[in-house]
Amino acid sequence: MTAATDTGLRVELIRSLGAVAHTPPPESGLLFDALGLPTLTGAAYTRAFVLSAPPHAAIHLGPDGKLGGIGLDRVEGFWRAAGQHPPADADHLGVLLMCYADVRGQIRSPGAHRIAESLFHEHIWPWAPGYLQAVSLLGDDAVTQWAQLTMAVLDDEYGRLTPPDPLTLPLALREAPAPVAIDDDFEDLLDALVSPVRAGFVLTHHTLSCGAAAVGVGYRRGERRFALKAMLDQDKSATLTWLSTHAHDWARWRATRDDAASRWWETRADATADALNEMRGNP
After folding, report:
1. Which spans in 41-185 are helix H?
2. For a 10 Å CB count at each end of the chain, is N or C smaller?
3. pTM for the full predicted model
């Protein structure tokens, strides 16, 4: 197999994985078949990619854990700096993977190769592993297998690209907002815990529902912030204990991945766990 053929096969695999996340069933059925994955139902797609874990960089790298804002602006700014018009839904993981495949496949263009490396290291790698870990735990076999295959492909791609400067983090992590702190007031604490870049971990509705059951409190449906507030209102100490354990679990998972971004996330999750442990002693 020639290098060009190998690259072509890999970029088509990446493109297909991105299209799966961006294309609801039944249109994505053929993609699942081609990838050897169980077919995803429309209900499961909506539950995973729309309601539980929308695959947007802004949610994971933006200061408030929400769609749009600076998290989206960074991705759109990247394309403008590259002299291209930003695609629609620019920070969606499916769009990022498909766009990455487009530029990565231009193997005879040094400029395209540099754009691909920058896109990967600045706008995919800083948050995609955490997102894929979170979505793999939602309990749907097709989604889990998609997430695991996507993570394996991204790990392989990371090893093929020019490694980033180990002393220079991606801009989103360098400019990350303040982490969870012992002196946060209650409202700011809630904001921080549902913002992955502040907390160091991901809280999905599924995670919170399981957490409520483990803590022994009622789970109130609504926005994640609302559900988390209800848990803390019912049993602050037990909920903080569960959150601290969740943070430590994420830190341990990050510790299995040896790159600068993962070490940053590990440090942030550990700091959150420590702060939550201290909070348990506060009234």
Report:
1. 42-45, 57-61, 69-81, 93-104, 110-119, 128-136, 141-160, 171-174
2. C
3. 0.92
Tokens of 252: 């341990």
pLDDT tens track for 58-80: 999 998 889 999 999 999 999 99
Contact 37, 146 (CB under 8 A): yes
Percentage helix, strand, coil for the chain under 3-state DSSP, each rounded to 5: 65, 0, 30
Amino acid, res. 84: Q
Alpha carbon distance 124, 91 (integer Å):
9
* No. of helices (H) and no. of strands (E), the chain: 16, 0
Indicate if the pLDDT at residue 2 is higher than 90: no
Q: Of 147, 126, 151, which is closest to residue 74 (Cα–Cα)?
A: 126
Beta pairing partners, 92: 56
Q: Which residues share a beta bridge with 56?
A: 92
pLDDT in tens, 182-217: 988 999 999 999 999 999 999 999 999 999 999 999
Tokens of 116: 């691909």
- Between CA 158 and CA 35 the distance in angstroms is 21
